[in-house]
Hints:
The complex is a heterodimer. By secondary structure, chain A is an all-alpha fold. Among the domains of chain A are: 50-88; 100-174, no CATH class. Helices cover 65% and strands 0% of the residues of chain A. Chain A is built from eight helices and no strands. Residues 159-179 of chain A have low confidence and may be disordered. Chain B is built from eight helices and no strands. Chain B starts with a helix and ends with a helix. At the A-B interface, helix 1, helix 2 and helix 3 of A face helix 1, helix 2, helix 5, helix 6 and helix 8 of B.
Amino acid sequence: MNKSPDSFELDLEREHLLQSGSHPPQDRALAADWHLRNQLRELRDEAGLPPRLRRRVLNARSRRVPAAWLSAVAAALLVAVALPVLRNAPEPTPADAIGAAEMAELGLALSTIHDAGRRAAHLTGRGVSRGLVVPRLGLAELPYADWLQRTFQPVPRTSVLRASGTHPDPDSNPQEKQP
Amino acid sequence: MTRRFKQLVDAHGGRLHQLASLMLSSRDEAEDVVQDALVKLWDRLATLEPGRELPWLVTCTRNACLDRLRSRSRHRGLLQVVAGRDRIAATQRDAEHGPARSHERSEASGRLRTALAKLPEPGRSLLILRDIQELDVATVARTLELSENQVKVYTFRARRKLREALEEELHEQVA
């Protein structure tokens, strides 16, 4: 089918000639093409789809309908059964949420332990303070709020060094750090 | 949707069946291909834009025919056997329409069908869709993914090739 562009234009012109005329063209080759085109037209079958095949097609189609209905019913059942269960499920609570009662108990425990315990709590507090979300603790509402704040609030190291000049933690006693 | 589907089956089914029959030279295979295409249409009908059904159906049918012809070409020689079998069927069908013209008509159309089936693509499809089924150029162009001018020129060339093949065959018979 790939010929020169000139040949393309020429063949296009010939085809237009064949399609437009109701009589065979003068050119013998084109006249033969024109007759062949008419012969081909006679092959056209207007009968439509054979009845047996039509029945087969419509039957095959109707067999697919129940499948579609079943899918729709299955989807409806899923919605009816699964959605209420999911809706009634309790809301998951965040793992790090600490209530006011727990904080009060903690405060009481801290106030009653002796000095060694306080030091241990202090060191532990410094260790875990980076992992705690302090604004969520609600320290201001509790007794011993300042103490807890100092224990658990993470202190930016650079600002502490800048403020005190030597000590990384305003609450820490340099003597305590000596062995 | 069922009514629309039935309307489409009645409007285009015959055309598809003839396309497949001429491409495959086998009525049984043609029926299978057309059934598959129409059942696929049912699945796609909800998403298919109205007016786009015919190009979609023709493309679907033609592709299925080409697949079968490709797999058939692995078993060479079968084509001739099937074409011969269908020529006999066509002769029997024509005989039912009148004994006087039937022999002449069936012989000519049988020769034409056989020569058409041997044409390479897209020439064969173009002659079926343009010359036999008289589909408009725009629809054929969209179906075969060609420009309208390509459809016209390739149809002209395919027709000429078919004529040369028929003349050659006639020449051999005379000789």
